[in-house]
Design a protein that fits this description.
75% helix, mainly alpha, 118 residues, 2 helices
Length: 118
């Protein structure tokens, strides 16, 4: 031991660590490795949980998008059907007006009766 302090070793007389000191260092290293592995496992588990949640949200979003697209398609079909019916009504009304209400073409002599006198 050193003459400076009883817990200090003299460098010129140091022969290396004792078996107990070596075992203590190995035990500490093993504890650190176990703690590191435990932290890595916890991080991996947490990352897996986050990934699962993100995948679930992605699937929900895809499902919602599909539902929205289906509703849009249905609305588009309804509007097309309504437009088709309106076109048929308009065509029928025009045919009725052309055949029943205004059946004849206006003749030339009708226009000739105007502006004949000054």
């Amino acid at each position: 031991h050193s003459f400076i302090a009883p817990n200090r070793l003299r460098p010129d007389h140091y022969k290396g660590m004792s078996v107990a000191e070596q075992q203590a260092i190995l035990a500490e290293q093993a504890a650190q490795a176990a703690l590191k592995a435990e932290k890595a496992a916890a991080l991996k588990s947490q990352q897996a949980a986050v990934d699962a949640e993100l995948e679930y949200l992605r699937q929900v979003r895809c499902q919602t998008e599909a539902q929205v697209n289906l509703k849009r398609s249905e609305m588009r079909k309804m509007v097309q059907e309504e437009n088709r019916q309106l076109a048929e009504q308009q065509k029928a009304t025009k045919q009725y007006l052309d055949k029943v209400v205004y059946p004849g073409k206006i003749e030339e002599h009708y226009f000739n009766q105007f502006n004949t006198t000054s």
